[in-house]
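Aim 2 progress update. The chain analyzed this quarter is reproduced below.
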Amino acid sequence: MKNYQIIGFTLCTFGNILLIQQMRDYIFIAPILAAQVIIWICCSILFCVDISSRELFIAINTVLVIVGLLGILSPI
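Predicted structure tokens:
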């Protein structure tokens, strides 16, 4: 794994742990929040994938940025 993959996976995992701790009561009530948490967990797993194709690299990183922005904007 490359350095940015390790850093990205660590940050996403830490963020997911904090998110689940803060929202654990609401996750059981609202299925939308549960789906959003599952998407964030899947995105943190994407950092572990070693990508050989440039197009796939751009697509995955675009998805990661969009989901990260949605995660930042959703509490606001």
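The mean pLDDT is 77. Residues 5 and 47 are 5 Å apart (CA to CA). These observations will guide the mutagenesis experiments scheduled for the next reporting period.
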